[in-house]
Amino acid sequence: MRSAKNIFSRTRIGRVTRAPRRQCANMSPMFAVLARDKESKARRARLTTTHGEIDTPAFMPVGTQGSVKGVSPRELRELNAQIVLGNTYHLFVRPGMDVIKHFGSLHNFMNWDGAILTDSGGYQIFSLAKLRKITQEGVEFQNHIDGAPAFISPEIAMEIQMLLGSDIAMALDECVAYPCEYDYAAQSAEMTTRWAKRCKKAHAVILGEVEGSRPTTSKLSHRDSSTAVRSARNDDALRQLLFGIVQGSTFEDLRKENAQAIVDLDFDGYAIGGVSVGEPEDEMMRAIEWAEPFLPENKPRYAMGLGTPPQLLELIARGMDMFDCVLPTRLARNGTAFTATGTINLKNAEFALETNPIEDDCTCEACREFSRSYIRHLIKAEEILGLRLITLHNLHFYLNLMNQARTEIERRTFDQFRKKFVANYKTRNAVMVQ
Amino acid sequence: MRSAKNIFSRTRIGRVTRAPRRQCANMSPMFAVLARDKESKARRARLTTTHGEIDTPAFMPVGTQGSVKGVSPRELRELNAQIVLGNTYHLFVRPGMDVIKHFGSLHNFMNWDGAILTDSGGYQIFSLAKLRKITQEGVEFQNHIDGAPAFISPEIAMEIQMLLGSDIAMALDECVAYPCEYDYAAQSAEMTTRWAKRCKKAHAVILGEVEGSRPTTSKLSHRDSSTAVRSARNDDALRQLLFGIVQGSTFEDLRKENAQAIVDLDFDGYAIGGVSVGEPEDEMMRAIEWAEPFLPENKPRYAMGLGTPPQLLELIARGMDMFDCVLPTRLARNGTAFTATGTINLKNAEFALETNPIEDDCTCEACREFSRSYIRHLIKAEEILGLRLITLHNLHFYLNLMNQARTEIERRTFDQFRKKFVANYKTRNAVMVQ
């Protein structure tokens, strides 16, 4: 056994305190499509997880290090967020798996009783960590905080995400950069497929192990109660779901082949990765369009790391159900707020005397209570409340956009809604994605 | 007229939208002492302002730039804060008086319907600004943000605070550094007295002017409604109160003479300034003890810029009613939390696996919902939620300490409570004041 793996091996599973449960045969479907748009591939569906139902199309606020930046779990609940994303790599590096294991799950640790999707950690290992060696076996790397060496493989990615106790785990993939040579993209997509297969197998093995183990009670009994309530409410006990990821860069044949190969492995849901890596928007849309027809209708589809508000509607029209993006939280910290007509930067002098809120008809806390002028002052004076308020508004904007999309799909008027929204949104290309 | 004054003169009053009202003869007393401790000078009282009643002893969270750092007005209300402090100098520099005038008051601007005390701006002019020239007339200075020249005099300090619409304004004083030569301290205290007299006169003139003017309606009608409700509830209409400030450095005769001279001017309340400027704790206590006997029993007493939790109880025992201090918010940003046994720094490794909250019996949001381990992780990972949670806890700690003090005074058991608290508090000298 290699030394780097030994360092990592302290995270080996064994004392998971909250055991994901096996899916029963007689349960309601994990994913149910409730309505379809007339003119596009948009669908309104419901995904059932261990920590509640997720209405799709759904936006997942990004909680990189166990916290959606600037926002409390209570505020997330008030925003009606049903699911957040946790970054496995960041959490592995800090606070580390010993701490998460001690709490039984990421839910317990961050006191969030909604659903959590964790990524595999691969994306950050390839983009943030000092990459030492990539082999078919896995990746040796040094983390970006203290340089400690570690090793990740498909099997270890499954173990870590099970320790995190996420409701949805992601298979380990390689997300190639843009632009990418065809040969590298082809080899990488093949490796991603082989890794996906190993993830599927390892996940099943771990689920079996966990099922056989006896859950112990966390010290934080009041936090466990929410889990207990949810489990009791859902007669059909659930397990952690596992999504496969389609790669293939910007090449039609690779995208199609890879989509088919990943779907053949029969995951609980499918993500399209390797988008939002710097490619032009039309390349991104094409990557989605090539892969989408291969994805089964009865499983959720997740477009990773996307996007601007118009992009989200375009992706919904192309059959995507789930999204995550750092834009609402990241841009807020720079003073940028989303509105129906595009982004505005509240640092601008034009807002100095504006007594109206960020958006007149918005129902978020920032818009109910505060003026553009005050928020501008807070941002200029580097007061934390300023970025808190814009973050709340931006998350509300994204979550509300999904809520509107769901309603419009139910009414079969989604396509008109999309066209109107995109036409009114003026800063479509002004905002960098990621 | 000097040119610096012209720059400042744009702030001259004239279109104040929320008019402070004259105190009526038949109203309930502005300040009512409700109970006294048996063994000390501690008193439990109630101060009535335009924006509600303030139960004393009271702690005032510091909202330097129109925001208590990291905390929203809603959270301040949930913490049962009745009054916050606003720094006139900071607000004058940014966002500037034009913006505040546009909103009608600082209350409207920051959407806080509790009471506000504003300082005179003198302290920051002497400590932060580039001081250009101090004369009997006033102080010429350049602000620390963009170096713009400005001039402040006792009269201008009153005008600005009236524009801010604070419930309690402070007279302009010179807060001398520690240590200070006797002769300088004596001359400075005399000037502070002359300035106090001019403040009193200017304040009365402005109140008369405002009374004569006709209030206009703010554009933010929902914000004005809270003011209207409060005004309607209090049959006895109120005006902005003005507190005098006692100086005199660390010299017994100067403190006593200055206290008598300031009290002779008949202010609505009295502050003891020039403390918490780096002097040893016993010097600070002596400065308070020298001045206190000169302060009338039927007026509130405010110890400026203080202090640690044990210091607050010691000052209450010495007859002080009101306090402001940046420690709860400033230390929170460094990961330091207050507990009944002293401060703890949550960055320390010992907290890495602690599932219990900051304080076991604490009822604040941070302690109800989150573990020491999680908060430590957030602080280490520089997540904003970490400092938010510790700030909430620390403010709760200070406000709750005042609440306990009031209850103990009512029960006539304050002195035992103080002694026990101080004895249990281990880090008494570990925390720098200011």
Any overview of this molecule?
2 copies of one chain form a homodimer. The first copy, chain A, is of the alpha/beta class. Helices cover 42% and strands 16% of the residues of chain A. Chain A contains 17 helices and 17 strands. Chain A has helices spanning 3-8, 73-78, 88-93, 97-103, 106-110, 122-127, 154-164, 182-212, 221-233, 252-264, 281-291, 309-317, 327-332, 365-369, 372-380, 384-410, 414-424, and strands spanning 31-36, 43-49, 52-56, 58-60, 62-63, 83-86, 115-118, 130-134, 139-142, 149-152, 168-170, 241-246, 269-272, 301-303, 322-324, 336-339, 342-345. In chain A, the strands form 4 sheets. A 9-stranded parallel sheet of chain A has the order 4-15-14-13-12-11-7-6-5. Chains A and B meet through α4, α15 and α16 of A and α4, α15 and α16 of B.
Sequence-ordered SSE layout with sheet pairings:
2 copies of one chain form a homodimer.
Chain A: H1 3-8, E1 31-36, E2 43-49, E3 52-56, E4 58-60, E5 62-63, H2 73-78, E6 83-86, H3 88-93, H4 97-103, H5 106-110, E7 115-118, H6 122-127, E8 130-134, E9 139-142, E10 149-152, H7 154-164, E11 168-170, H8 182-212, H9 221-233, E12 241-246, H10 252-264, E13 269-272, H11 281-291, E14 301-303, H12 309-317, E15 322-324, H13 327-332, E16 336-339, E17 342-345, H14 365-369, H15 372-380, H16 384-410, H17 414-424
Parallel strand pairs in A: 4-15, 5-6, 6-7, 7-11, 11-12, 12-13, 13-14, 14-15
Antiparallel strand pairs in A: 1-2, 2-3, 8-9, 9-10, 16-17
Key terms:
three-stranded antiparallel beta sheet; globular; 17 helices; about 425 residues; nine-stranded parallel beta sheet; homodimer; about 40% helix; disordered N terminus; alpha/beta
